[in-house]
Amino acid sequence: MSEIKELMIKSVIALLDDGFDVEALTIRQIAYEAHVATGLINYHFGSKWNLIVSAISSIIDDATIEAFQTLSNLNDSPKQQLRTFLKAMAMVVLKYQKYTSVLISDELSSDRFSTPETIVGLLKEIKPGLSEKEIKCLAIQVVAPIQYVFLKERGLRSYLGEEQDIPHTITLDDYEEIMEVFLKTLGI
Question: Domain containing 10: what range?
Fold first, then answer.
């Protein structure tokens, strides 16, 4: 990635860290923070939104890698590494809810499949007999329900027939339970 693109991404991250709202960020604010001309944002990213998504992706990717490294054990089997990685992702989702909702919504409405791509390597180790296409489809089957549950967490309790009187936000334990059900259903 070019220095100028990295500078713009870091500038958006700095603005978000300063409390600016994702939807309220302007091209002028970003350009001012990065000390670049406004036209460079569209030139390098195609749009302000693409730059913001790149910055949020950077935040989420770095946090996920850090969480995974904290939780992982090099001696774990590929199946356990997958579970650990998904737990790390869930921890990050919970920590950065406002950012992950933007990122998941954007990924689901775009042509990108960056989240499923993160687990393709582990799935190849777990299911070595599958073709590349089958592995990628399996990666979607693992990730998509977790993304869906995150975006629909308010209705999840009702759908599962659980108490609705108690105000509830989905927890890490909830994600782990849901993730285990999905992985078991997929035979992983």
Answer: 1-46
